[in-house]
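Consortium newsletter contribution from the modelling node. Members have asked for a concrete example of what our holo predictions look like. Here is one, prepared for the NAP complex that several groups have been discussing at recent meetings.
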Amino acid sequence: MAELWKGAPTAAALMEDLTGRIERLSGAGVTPTLAIVRVGERPDDRAYETGAVKRCEKAGVAVKRFPLPAGCSALELRAVLEHINAVSEIHGCLLLRPLPDPAMEEMACALLDPKKDVDCMTPAALAGVFAGKGWGYPPCTAQACLELLKYYKTALTGKRAVVVGRSLVIGKPVSMLLQAENATVTMCHTRTVDLPAVCRGAEVLIAAAGRANLLGAAHVSPGQVVLDVGINVDKDGKLCGDVKFDEAEPVVSAITPVPGGVGAVTTAVLVKHVVEAAERTLK
Ligand code: NAP
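And here is the predicted structure:
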């Protein structure tokens, strides 16, 4: 039976660490402030926004919301981002993605000031994460995986890590972060040959394919740590991950649940990035 790695204790530890830093900023007259830009009314965007606002406000981080209609023009979105870039009291910006129009998303990623990019949407922030130079905040979800591994004291040096998924939002950056911790990383995708065997060979397995119940008994082996990043809806309309929990849990050493695992850490990482961005303005 596996240890259940819920996200809440990791998130609580992160928030506790931030309390003093937020107080010090406040003493210097700075309220860390996050702008959230949402285009349209997608329920998952709204749910993430609500969670982020709750987490921020509880911690003493201010939030400015910029909701735009689904059919807004590129000019409207540009004006909002230019405002965010220009206002020095706003330290970080979260644009809920994907946008309905990919061209608009590309424009937004190119426009946002990388110093305010707390979720790694700009090419400059991505380059920092890929160069491993410590500049640029990694995507919050990718960083949340590393925070979980750190909280549960998983040494990564020399470990075989397998990441299922190669998106710029999760798969690729989490692979880079694992590599920076000296893990030996294999990145899998839809053309990977014999996915079950590759996954079984992992000591740390990160599922980020966005396919309900993709990985089952054939993909796991004893001693593994399994982080399930997937947030999917199964055929019965129930929220589920990429991993068949009931099949993996009896085999592996540790596993994150869905919901309540990686996702529960993501907004705490977001707050951490906003606080760091605010601290940098004092330096
Ligand atoms: P994405 O852009 O659709 O990328 C999915 C990746 O998985 C692709 O690289 C794809 O390979 C690979 N893949 C898909 N089916 C596969 C299969 N059958 N075998 C092997 N690889 C396969 O998705 P994403 O944006 O990275 O998101 C992944 C999941 O994370 C989603 O469920 C999303 O909802 C969730 N998510 C969670 C959080 C959180 O806070 N927990 C935050 C954001 C997203 P190819 O490149 O070959 O197509």
